[in-house]
Design goal:
The chain is α/β, with parallel strands linked by helices. It is built from 7 helices and 4 strands, in the order βαβαβαααβαα. It has a 4-stranded parallel beta sheet.
Length: 182
């Protein structure tokens, strides 16, 4: 069995208070600190210079990855496979509104989240499949990859790389702006 490539992940900055109590995943949301400060926080925490930097196309990840890439002189690869879980029709809405307006859809998703997503969204297994496809295409063990990502993607990588069950991965804390191994 071949060794997995070296991979370090960094979760984007926390979302602003404006997004508190809202459902978001595959949409752009405001974060704080902004990319320049977020990148400045991440850079001194990196153990070395990666060979490649990867990111979701969503701004909360991409802008930080681009700033880190400029500082380190490393190209940044934007990949749609690394976008956070798509919550479909729930995206951007408050959880209170979803509970009030679509209780049956929310309950169904809560019961079947591994294999079914919210209306128009995706399941945990769908997220896992696209993250696995990305991971399987990474360069071999001589490359070092930095991924600026979303919590869902980091948790999916724990499932893919370490074989942990989703229930365990979901309990894993994914700190903001701190490099960690998935």
């Amino acid at each position: 069995m071949s060794r997995s490539p070296e991979l370090v992940t960094v979760r984007h900055a926390p979302v602003t208070a404006r997004w508190s109590g809202r459902c978001y995943g595959a949409i752009d949301v405001d974060v704080e600190p902004a990319a320049p400060e977020a990148a400045a926080r991440v850079l001194p925490l990196l153990a070395g210079t990666p060979t490649r930097i990867w990111t979701s196309p969503l701004l909360r990840c991409r802008e930080v990855a681009e700033r880190v890439g400029i500082e380190l002189g490393v190209p940044v690869e934007v990949d749609g496979s690394l976008t956070e879980l798509d919550h479909g029709t729930f995206e951007g809405r408050t959880w209170d509104a979803i509970h009030a307006e679509e209780p049956e859809a929310l309950a169904r998703w809560g019961e079947r989240w591994r294999d079914e997503g919210p209306p128009g969204g995706e399941s945990a297994r769908s997220l896992e499949a696209r993250v696995r496809a990305w991971h399987d295409d990474l360069d071999g063990p001589s490359a070092t990859h930095l991924l600026v990502a979303h919590a869902g993607v980091v948790r999916a990588l724990a499932v893919v790389r370490n074989g942990v069950p989703w229930e365990t991965a979901l309990r894993r804390e994914v700190p903001h702006l701190v490099p960690v191994s998935p």
